[in-house]
From TrEMBL:
Assigned keywords, A-Z: Aminoacyl-tRNA synthetase, ATP-binding, Cytoplasm, Ligase, Nucleotide-binding, Protein biosynthesis, RNA-binding
Organism, as annotated: Polymorphum gilvum (strain LMG 25793 / CGMCC 1.9160 / SL003B-26A1)
One Gene Ontology biological process: tyrosyl-tRNA aminoacylation
Protein name: Tyrosine--tRNA ligase
Family the UniProt entry places it in: Belongs to the class-I aminoacyl-tRNA synthetase family. TyrS type 1 subfamily.
E.C. no: 6.1.1.1
Biological function: Catalyzes the attachment of tyrosine to tRNA(Tyr) in a two-step reaction: tyrosine is first activated by ATP to form Tyr-AMP and then transferred to the acceptor end of tRNA(Tyr).
Gene Ontology molecular functions: ATP binding; RNA binding; tyrosine-tRNA ligase activity
Length: 423
């Protein structure tokens, strides 16, 4: 049975955990909401979310299932995070028009290390009874091919597999779907089964695009082991304008500080559209709902204060209170026009100035543009200021003459700024 979040909110639930998730807008679909509610009310439930290692960091889109696990942990349940050391070697074809580039084992291992760092701030990994990271390579790489086909191939029919939207969208677009990609849903289903056997995991949390894969796991466990498992999807988060949240002109909003500085992360949330503030406070902060409701109805100058609170709270979740406080301090100085006294948001080697540092490269480096092409378009459109002066030439270089006390300021539009210190 599929239950949507709006059905769940019509009446109060028995368990605090599921009620909190519904109230905060973290429930999109559930395989059996009433039975899951009863399971939460009966005692601790182990739940997992999985992330393939296709990049060296998670991004804001991944933060929604992570926040779901975070709330479950706060309320006495146990989260597992599955890192796809095995499935990343295949690649999830869901809602893609082409195959993902195949990664080597070395690339996957390197990416997993970065993903671990992305998760550390969101979930409590210190307690032996707390959140646990698991790599599905532990079991997927141990299967023999014929053994896997005999044990699990009989539990899936091609007839049903091609009805899932994730597969159908590729076929309808008349794009090739390899056997390797087609088998991905089987691997994810086996993940859920293995986690239920090894860790008594009863709930899988995933994005709405993972619904078909999650249902496969629930059904596989029922057929093979007679286990009652549950699936829950979180909503795809879009802005009020309909765009997918987490993408900016400068690229993805990464969670790893080496890919996006805590201050740039803070700026992303500080620049949230007015209409999205309430939703983002619900989804991406730990603030109580009473405070979320108060902040969400503010207007004008007061709404800007709500955006600062959102930015600081969300940054604190991912990067910790100290980094969030420092980002707030930097933001207060920058947005108040005090660039001269603001703390640096980025550092660079002054030796690079000798030959003239390309401005396009610097814009990409500090996260104000996703690529040199985007940086060029920003400059040609009159959207870049260097030390308060509009830059018109994309071939412009940065030299020692541009520095004041070893620093310079960059501003892309009115809302995105950076202070670069050269050491």
């Amino acid at each position: 049975m599929t239950v949507h979040a709006r059905s769940a909110s019509a009446s109060r639930l028995k368990s605090e955990a599921l009620q909190v998730l519904v109230d905060r807008g973290l429930v999109h679909q559930c395989t059996d909401l009433e039975a899951l509610d009863a399971a939460f009310a009966a005692g601790p439930v182990t739940a997992y979310a999985g992330f393939d290692a296709t990049a060296a960091s998670l991004h804001v889109g991944h933060l929604v299932p992570l926040m779901t696990l975070r709330w479950l942990q706060k309320l006495g349940h146990r989260p597992l995070v599955v890192l796809g050391g095995g499935t990343s070697l295949v690649g999830d074809p869901s809602f893609r028009n082409d195959a993902r580039p195949l990664l080597t084992e070395a690339q996957v291992t390197e990416n997993i290390a970065g993903i671990r760092r992305s998760i550390e701030g969101v979930l409590d990994l210190d307690d032996s009874e707390g959140a646990r990271l698991v790599d599905n390579a532990e079991w997927l790489t141990e299967f023999r091919f014929l053994e896997f086909l005999r044990d699990y191939g009989t539990q899936f029919t091609v007839n049903r597999m091609i009805t899932f939207d994730s597969v159908r969208s590729r076929l309808d677009a008349q794009q090739p779907l390899t056997v390797l990609e087609f088998c991905y849903m089987m691997l994810q289903a086996v993940d859920f089964l293995e986690l239920s056997r090894r860790h008594e995991c009863r709930l899988q949390v995933g994005g709405s695009d993972q619904w078909g894969n999650i249902v496969n796991g629930v059904e596989l466990a029922r057929k093979t082991d007679g286990r009652r498992l549950f699936g829950l999807t979180v909503p795809l988060v879009t802005t009020a304008g309909g765009a997918k949240m987490g993408k900016t002109a400068a690229g993805a909003v990464w969670l790893h500080p080496d890919h996006l500085s805590p201050f740039a992360f803070w700026q992303f949330w500080r620049n949230t559209a007015d209409a999205d503030v309430g939703k983002c406070l619900r989804l991406f902060t730990d603030l109580p709902m009473s405070e979320v409701g108060r902040l969400a109805v503010l207007e004008g100058v007061e709404l800007n204060e709500a955006k600062k609170i959102l930015a600081t709270q969300a940054t604190g979740v991912v990067h910790g209170p100290a980094a969030a406080g420092a980002a707030l301090e930097q933001g207060e100085a920058l947005f108040a026009g005090g660039e001269a006294s603001a703390r640096p948001t980025h550092e660079a080697d002054c030796a690079r100035l000798a030959a003239g540092l390309g401005l396009l490269d610097l814009l990409v480096e500090v996260g104000l543009a996703a690529s040199n092409g985007a940086a060029r378009r920003l400059i040609e459109g009159g959207g870049l200021r260097l030390n308060g002066e509009t830059v018109a030439d994309p071939r412009r270089t940065v030299t020692a003459a541009d520095l004041t006390d070893g620093r310079l300021t960059l501003a892309a539009g009115r809302r995105r700024k950076a202070v670069v210190a050269f050491r």
